[in-house]
Each structure stands twice: as C-alpha cells, then as structure tokens.
Write a structure and sequence with these properties.
The structure is a single chain. By secondary structure, the protein is an alpha/beta fold. The protein folds into two domains: about 180 residues, 3-Layer(aba) Sandwich (Rossmann fold), CATH 3.40.50; about 170 residues, Rossmann fold (3-Layer(aba) Sandwich). An eight-stranded mixed sheet has the order 3-2-1-4-5-6-14-15, with helices on both faces. Strands 9-8-7-10-11-13-12 form a seven-stranded mixed sheet, with helices on both faces. Strand 4, helix 4 and strand 5 form a beta-alpha-beta unit. The longest helix is centred in the C-terminal third of the chain and has 30 residues. It is globular, with a radius of gyration of 21 Å. The structure holds 1,4-dihydronicotinamide adenine dinucleotide (NAI), pyruvic acid (PYR) and magnesium ion (MG). InterPro entries: Ala_DH, AlaDH/PNT_N, AlaDH/PNT_NAD(H)-bd, NAD(P)-bd_dom_sf. It is an enzyme of class 1 (oxidoreductase). It catalyses: L-alanine + NAD(+) + H2O = pyruvate + NH4(+) + NADH + H(+). One of its GO terms (molecular function) is alanine dehydrogenase activity.
C-alpha cells in the first residue's frame, strides 16, 4: 500500500503521524511511504531520518493526498484537507466529530473511509489510541493550571503545594479516567489537596487503591460537583462519553460563583468541553477569562510536547497502521472489532453511535458489509 504522511497544520502542532521507526516497519512489510518534506523537523525527526527509514519525501501536501491510499495524521483534517480526500481512501487520525458538524459533513462528502483514533477500543473497554495523548494531556493539565494560577497569567497567585505554614491549593479533577488519573498523579506529586470526582464507582475504587489517603475520591453528581468546584483553586475537566459530545458538568452559573482568580482547565474541549463557558483555544492564545475565572481550553495540548507525544502515539497506532496497510480496510476492519469501532464515517455514511445527533447512523459492520 502507498501510505502518505502530510505535515500537521494546526496551530503549534508539531506531532507527526508516523515516526521513522514506524516508516521502517511499513517498508519492511513491502509498503511505500511518502512523507511531506519537513514534517518532523521541528521535533528532531529530520528528513534524513525519514529517507534512511525508506520514505520518499514529497514537497506538497496535495501530492500526498492525491497519491496515497491511506493518509496517517495526528489532528483532524482542516477543511481544505478534507476536500483533498477521495472515495475509498483511508484516513486514520484523531477526528473528534461529535462537536464538529462541519468536519463531519466534509468527511461524508469525501467518500473516504474515516477511522478515528479516539474511538478505537480494546478488550478491556479502554481507548488504546486516545490513552497515550490523555496521559500527556492529563500530566500537562496540572502544569498549565499551575501557570494560570500565577499572578502574571491572571490567577489568584497560589502555589499548588503551598509552603510550610500555608495551605496547599485545592485541585478538583472531574472525570477519573486516563486524563484524570494522570492529572491527579501530578497534582499529588506537587503536594496539592486533590479530589477526583467520577460517575463510575469502579473507577473511584481503583483510584482509591492506587493513591490511598493522598487522594480524595468523590462520587460525581450535581451537588458534589458544585461543592468541589466552588471550593477549588484549580478544576480539571476530564470527562468522556466515548465518541459523543462531552456532558456539561459545570454550568455558567456555577462559574460565576467560583473564586475570582481560580482556574479551569478543560481537557475535554476536543469533545466540545465540559464547562458551559468553554470554547476551544490555541497554544498561541491559550486562555481567556469569564467572571474572573481563567479558562485554559487548548484542544491539542499534547502538541506542546510534540516529541514525547509523537513517540507515545506511534507506539500505540503502529499495529493498527500495519494491519490496515497489510490487509486493506475491508479485511482489517472485519478481522478486528476494536478497529471497526474506530470507523466514524464510511463512504458518506455516519457509522459511530456518538454521531446520532448529526444524522442517520448505520452500524459500522453493516456499512462495510461485514
Ligand atoms: N485537549 C487535549 O489536548 C486532549 C483532550 N483529551 C480529552 O480528554 C477527555 C478525557 O479523556 P480520557 O481520560 O482518556 O477518557 P476516559 O474514558 O479514560 O475517562 C473519562 C472518565 O470520565 C468519567 N465520566 C463520564 N461522564 C462523567 C460525568 N458526568 N461526571 C464525572 N465523570 C464522568 C468516566 O466514568 C471516565 O472515568 C476526552 O474528551 C479526550 O478526548 C485527551 C487528550 C488530549
Ligand atoms: C486527543 C487529542 O485531541 C490530541 O492529542 O490532540
Ligand atoms: Mg484534541
């Protein structure tokens, strides 16, 4: 198969769909890989490394989209990229379609086979291609929140761990999955007072076993969320209903009653955000203020540590990229129900249940005739 890797074009997005190591593996399996010149330069993955791995460098993204049978990316395609896709071509990348009707429509019009990293599943009920970036974003959320709490970033001026004789900051993490667990781990490491809220008692039990008395676990409902948010200096939004728009767990009215100079980091922004006052921001301009509360809502947080993130993502995507290249989409999707769960748009039809609010959904297996 001819596999194409365009350079990412989102604001401050330096990740790459394939590392040289994964290119090498594809080439060893008899595939051809074309990579846009300079795709990895910013993170030390030079053109020379790609050439040595067996890739052919291409100058223009148009040529990659025109020639490749499968496009491997990181972020969702921007509108003019969607317009370069064609029927039968595989697109394998993050899509986050539920809160994005425009991208959904463009992908439907393309006729391409659109497989979203974030809805591929595993046998333990996890999301193996979202998990590595959730680990990164969860860890980063505490760094970002700590900066925002500093005066020069607009915050109230609190050090997360305090110092002897002063209280630590209160950190509330809503959603105790991969993002939430990693956020809690960093916040505990900095000696903040940390509470995780989740709707899943099983999840809370696991967190309790993992962190013991260093972490407060709270069952999430309207009342407990309100109490935690109003007390917190830093709130991390980390909920997810896979494939669907994020539930709004914190209302505008609640934000109005928060402490002035407190901080919200909405990691769930890529699925539309879990605070009513959230809208997506960029690394160039990451924050804004509503009612005295600093909002950090960057939709591609892992892009800031793009080298770590590229390797972490590629470690997880490699077997799926290889399966798609070796077998083609029909056999790869038919053989592996977990990869099939990643199919969001197929030949113009929506195939993921989380997209039902955007149009008729056909079960993925039915759509491909499996
Ligand atoms: N902004 C960014 O750069 C990035 C964003 N993300 C996003 O972060 C979000 C979280 O991802 P993961 O931690 O991997 O998901 P996950 O599935 O591991 O965890 C989500 C948790 O939310 C809980 N939950 C669902 N509804 C809830 C509610 N109403 N109240 C409390 N808890 C609730 C679930 O029980 C689950 O434990 C996703 O939207 C993901 O796409 C992930 C990576 C990067
Ligand atoms: C998961 C995601 O949206 C990201 O890594 O940017
Ligand atoms: Mg994102």
């Amino acid at each position: 198969m001819l596999v194409g890797v365009p350079k990412e074009i989102k604001n401050h997005e330096y990740r790459v769909g394939l590392t040289p190591g994964n290119v090498r593996q594809l080439v060893a399996h008899g595939h051809q890989v074309i990579v846009q010149r300079g795709a990895g330069t910013a993170i030390g993955l030079t053109d020379e490394l790609y050439t040595a791995a067996g890739a052919t460098l291409v100058d223009e993204p148009q040529e990659i989209f025109a020639r490749a049978e499968m496009i491997v990316k990181v972020k969702e395609p921007q509108p003019h990229e969607c317009c370069m896709l064609r029927p039968g071509q595989i697109l394998f990348t993050y899509l986050h379609l539920a809160p994005d009707p425009e991208q959904t429509r463009l992908l439907q019009q393309s006729g391409a086979v659109c497989i979203a990293y974030e809805t591929v599943t595993d046998r333990n009920g996890g999301l193996p291609l979202l998990a590595p970036m959730s680990e990164v974003a969860g860890r980063m959320s505490i760094q970002a929140g700590a900066h925002c709490l500093e005066k020069s970033y607009g915050g109230i001026g609190i050090l997360l761990g305090g110092v002897p004789g002063t209280p630590p900051a209160k950190v509330a993490v809503i959603g105790g999955g991969v993002v939430g667990t990693n956020a809690a781990r960093m916040a505990i490491g900095l000696e903040a007072y940390v509470t995780v809220l989740d709707k899943s008692l099983d999840r809370l039990r696991q967190l309790d076993m993992q962190f013991g008395r260093r972490l407060n676990t709270v069952y999430s409902n309207d009342e407990t969320v309100e109490q935690a948010v109003l007390e917190a200096d830093l709130v991390i939004g980390a909920v997810l209903v896979p494939g669907a728009s994020a539930p709004k767990v914190v209302s505008r009215e609640m934000v109005r009653r928060m402490k002035p100079g407190s901080v919200l980091v909405d990691v769930a922004i890529d699925q539309g955000g879990c605070f009513e006052t959230s809208h997506a921001t960029t690394h160039d301009n990451p924050t804004y203020v509503v009612d005295g509360v600093i909002h950090y809502c960057v939709a591609n947080m892992p892009g800031a540590v793009a080298r770590t993130s590229t390797f972490a993502l590629n470690n997880a995507t490699a077997p799926f990229v290889l399966a798609l290249a070796d077998k083609g989409w029909r056999t790869a999707l038919t053989d592996d129900v977990h990869l099939l769960n990643g199919l969001n748009v197929f030949e113009g039809r929506l195939t993921h249940p989380g997209l039902a609010h955007l149009g008729d959904v056909v079960p993925a297996g039915t759509a491909i005739g499996a």
